[in-house]
Amino acid sequence: MAMRLLVSLAIVALASADVGSHVSISHGAQPAVTYSAHRPHHVPSYHPAPAYHQRPTYHHQPAAYKPAHAYEADPPACSVNTTKTWCLEDDEYPTYELKAAIDYHFKSFKNLYADVADLNTELSVERPTTLEEETYLCPSETAYIRPLRAINTEGKWRVIINNIKAHYESETLTQTTRIEECLTSGNACPLVPVCYGSKCLQKSIYHRFVVYNPYDQYFPFAMETFQLPASCACLLSAFTIDH
What we know:
Layout: H1 2-16, E1 22-25, E2 33-36, E3 86-87, H2 95-104, H3 106-113, E4 140-145, E5 149-151, E6 157-160, E7 177-182, E8 198-212, E9 221-236, E10 239-241
Antiparallel strand pairs: 1-2, 3-5, 4-7, 5-6, 6-8, 8-9, 9-10
Organism: Meganyctiphanes norvegica (Northern krill)
Keywords: Disulfide bond, Glycoprotein, Signal
Domain Spaetzle: 136-235
């Protein structure tokens, strides 16, 4: 009876104890029995996160290739004593460097050069030379030129591939264009009455040449655009007469 009373008192004491307290009950010589009021903690199951929540972003992007130095050629010596935007003679023309570069890149250069092959235009602008045959309103001078240097449409001097014999070719690499320059640009048109307010006007055309860029070590050739004189017109008030 006494033993039952002791067990009942122990149970009551255990129920009234604070959370986290411990109660020890000894029964004579028996080893002490410890009761813990700790409630087992909830251990969450392991859910590994996905390897990538989104596509990885690479902040470093390889930069586009640019030549080591900008191609900013100074005005050549051949441009000193002329007002033209091209040179037909050039004592500083890099003939040796051009031959070496063309030989090294011959296959790629040949494909580029094929777009501007030499023109057979010797008779394309045959014109009368005397007033008895025909009269032009504005006097002009026509020529076929092979420029060695010229100013491109961005205002920069460039070396143009011309008169180069390279890679054991039997033919000479040339780039020819036709130009027509007004001899009295800005003046009144001859044979036109003053009351019409006429004037001679220089007209231009855009032409493409293969040029040499000594600063590009991978492929030192490119196609660039040049503005050259193409014809001479007579401007009458609000309209233009072309010929």
